[in-house]
Amino acid sequence: MSPTGKTLHWAVDKWLAPTPAMPARVVRFCRTRMRRRCVCIEAAHPGGLLSIFFFRHDDGSWNVFPPAEARPAMAAWRMAR
């Protein structure tokens, strides 16, 4: 489970608010270029069908935005004399 408490179930409830009359369903599982998981979930609403991609972050949380990619970094080393 995510230490932040942002599970996939929590994110779907927050963004799609499924009900027994209008349930949400998983449409697609995928992985991004950086081998991160994402899930497309859709739910019927009075205005039409709504689909949202959810992305899993390194801390285990699920969000509607993808995680930031690791950027190159430089490190300074001090040599012992």
UniProtKB/TrEMBL annotation:
- Tell me the organism: Paraburkholderia bengalensis
**What is the protein named?**
Uncharacterized protein
